[in-house]
Amino acid sequence: MKVPVLSDEKIIDSWRKNATPWTKAIRESQIESRTLVTNQAIVEAVLSVSPHTVLDVGCGEGWLVRTLVEQGKEVMGVDVIPELIEQASQLGRGQYAVLSYEDLAEGKLSRRFDAVVCNFSLLGKDSVNNLFGAIPHLLQPHGSFIVQTIHPVLGTGEHPYFDSWREGSWAGFNNDFSDPAPWYFRTLSTWVRLFSTNGFILQELQEPIHPNTGLPASALFVGKLQTAD
Ligand SMILES: C[S@@+](CC[C@H](N)C(=O)[O-])C[C@H]1O[C@@H](n2cnc3c(N)ncnc32)[C@H](O)[C@@H]1O
Q1: 11 CA from centroid of ligand 1 (Å)
Q2: What is the value of pTM for the model shown?
Q3: Which end of the chain is more exposed for a tag (fewer CB within 10 A), N or C?
């Protein structure tokens, strides 16, 4: 059966097709906003909450896991795409497992971490809403949930500013990429509400600025779990 074009399912389908060029793009530092701004922003945000243990959800080929391990953290990375987990495992320096957000929402990982991080990996609608509900069960009491994502004010582009599915694009990427993943656009207030309705106090909302454009390269949220579940 054909996968619906704007759906959580389609996101996984697209990432499966693009695992190889994605790994190459990250390892060759092809994405300027990452090398100039957002990589450092997410690493500093995670380190700022002083975790011993970290879960990287939607870890891709594992660069953030490796970076945090180098900082002395015990880190696990999970992703739904087996090829990406395979690529990550080959470079080692962390624990990895093939797990989807749906798996995490069903309680298939029964460990708790001091921090959970999602770096540009929260793309879908129900998959993300349900994952938010599962994060408190993956955290120690008062653990931190750190999310970096496309800045909604810039990400809305020419579209009206309300939550909705958007078509994907590989604009700015090389020709090895194909069939871009759709994504579910959320306004800033929707992101803030996702934290508060799932038991988090939002401790920080950062807007890392791209030095060449003077515009936000991302929105970065640091939520602290209010109570143990
Ligand atoms: C833009 S990449 C970011 C990867 C990594 N966090 C990084 O910073 O390089 C998005 C990642 O989210 C993962 N992903 C998307 N939907 C997922 C789902 N439902 N379950 C698990 N992983 C998912 C993709 O496989 C992909 O690795």
Answers
A1: 9
A2: 0.98
A3: N
